[in-house]
Amino acid sequence: MSDRAKLVIEGLHVEIGGKPILKGLDLTVGQGERHVLLGANGSGKSTLAYALTGHPAYTVTAGSVTFDGQDLLALEPHERAKLGLFLAFQKPREIPGVTLSNFLRRAVQTVRGQDLSLRDFTRSLSANLKRLDMAPEFARRYLNEGFSGGEAKRCEMLQLLSLQPRLAILDETDSGLDVAMRQLVAQVVLEEHAHTGFLVVTHYEDVVRQMQPDHVHIMADGRVVMSGGMELSERLAFEKSWDWVTEATAAEASA
Fold first, then answer.
1. Can you list the pairs that 222-231 forms with residues at least 24 positions away whose Cβ atoms lie under 8 Å?
2. How many structural domains does the chain have?
3. CATH of the domain at 96
4. pLDDT at position 253, please?
5. Is 148 exposed, middle or buried (0-12, 13-18, 19+ CB in 10 A)?
6. Is the pTM of this model over 0.85?
7. Contacts of 57 (CB under 8 A, 6+ apart)
8. Residue 254 has pLDDT above 80, yes or no
9. What are phi and psi of 10, to 5 degrees?
10. Full residue range of the structural domain in which residue 119 is found
C-alpha cells in the first residue's frame, strides 16, 4: 500500500500547557486496517487522538504526520475532516437547538463539498438508523442533549456511518458501556473497515477480541513501546497490570 493511503506518524512530540505528553511517537495506519491502542492512564492515547484532529490545546513541538500524502499538521481541523479524518469522543458534548438530522446533513455536505438532496439524505439516514436499531424520531432530538451513554455512542456510530471517513479515531468511545453496546461499536468497526481505517483507543479486552484488529499497540510514557497482534491484548488480560510492560520496556532500553 502506498504512502498516499496511509497515516504516517514519525517522531511526534506533543505538549499541553507546556507539559510534554507525546515523546517521539511513531505509528503507521493503512487505509482499511484496524489498529487498537492500549496503555495505562496518562500514557498519551487521548493526546494522540486530539493532536491528530487538530485540537488547539495540543501543541505539536516536533515530528511529522502525513495522511493521503499531505502534511496533516499544516491543515486546520475542518480541512482534516474533509480529508477523511473522524474522531469519536469519549464524552460527546451536548449541542442544544441543533437536531441530529440537521447536524448530520450539514456535516455530510461540508465534508463532501457538495449539496445533498433531502431525499437522498433521508433515505441514507433511515437506513443507518435501522442498522443501529435507532427509532426514526431519534433524528429529531437535539444533538446529545439528554442522551444516555448508550444513546450518545449510537449517535457517534450514526455519524461515522453517515460520513464514511477514510480514517476513524475512536477515543474510548466504548467507555462505560454495557456489553451489548460494546458489541455494537465493535460490529460497526468490523463492517466498515473495508473502506475505513480505524485507530481505536480502548481498555476492554472483549472489544479488542470482537474487532479482530490487524495490529495492537501498547503506549507508555508518550510512545508506542510494543506492537503486535492479539497476543498483546491477551497477555494484558492475563497479567491484569501494566508492570510487565514497564519491565519489558526498561529491559529493552538497557540492552
1. 222/14, 222/20, 222/21, 222/22, 222/23, 222/24, 222/25, 222/43, 222/44, 222/47, 223/22, 223/23, 223/24, 223/25, 223/26, 223/44, 224/25, 224/26, 224/27, 224/37, 225/249, 225/252
2. 1
3. 3.40.50.300
4. 66
5. exposed
6. yes
7. 16, 17, 50
8. no
9. -135, 120
10. 3-254
